[in-house]
Amino acid sequence: MKIANTNGNTGQKANLIIRKPKATDGAAVNNLIADCKPLDENSMYCNLLQCSHFSGTCAIAELNGEAVGFVSGYIVPDQPEQLFIWQVAVSPKARGLRLAKRLILDILDRPSCHNVSQLNTTITSTNAPSQGVFRSVARELGADVKRKVQFERETHFEGAAASEILWQIGPFEREDVERVAA
């Protein structure tokens, strides 16, 4: 668990805690994601599983006891060197704290990601904030970024959603993660 004092948007001192989630965080995560439009909402059950079964590759941030950030991810089956970040949610109350990047780096710094040398995610071409976060993570790690279409609008979403572009960040070394996550 990482604890930091920070000035929140209100100018007051605030306690920010970044930690692994637990099952009792599922409802708070579900509510946070619902408040972070236009993020796709998952079922509460999905969020419960993320907070319990996948807690080693997910991170929650609390500001003065309130959930204000969540990143969900998992180690890609049969590819233990790849961490896939599924979703990043940051409350408007915590914007400007570089929280998304801090949560991602916290996950990468954990023992469960000891063998990870590549970070993957998918981002739509119009999602500039997410592109900025992952570009910044790649820069911090000194890693290259490769992009290609992962899920195509017509083929995979029947035209109902934008194409998802796979961002492959890496390779990077464990030492790079430890240096930037400190």
Automatic annotation (TrEMBL):
**InterPro entries found in the cross-reference section:** Acyl_CoA_acyltransferase, Ectoine_EctA, GNAT_dom
Offer one Pfam family short name for this entry: Acetyltransf_1
Gene3D superfamilies registered for this protein in UniProt: 3.40.630.30
Q: Which residues form the N-acetyltransferase domain?
A: 16-169
The pathway to which it is assigned is:
Amine and polyamine biosynthesis; ectoine biosynthesis; L-ectoine from L-aspartate 4-semialdehyde: step 2/3
EC number(s) per entry: 2.3.1.178
Question: Which spans are transmembrane here?
Answer: none
GO terms, biological process = ectoine biosynthetic process
One example GO MF annotation: diaminobutyrate acetyltransferase activity
- Quote the NCBIfam families the UniProt record gives: ectoine_EctA
Q: What is this protein called?
A: L-2,4-diaminobutyric acid acetyltransferase
Q: State the species of origin.
A: Thalassospira tepidiphila MCCC 1A03514
The gene from which this protein is expressed is ectA
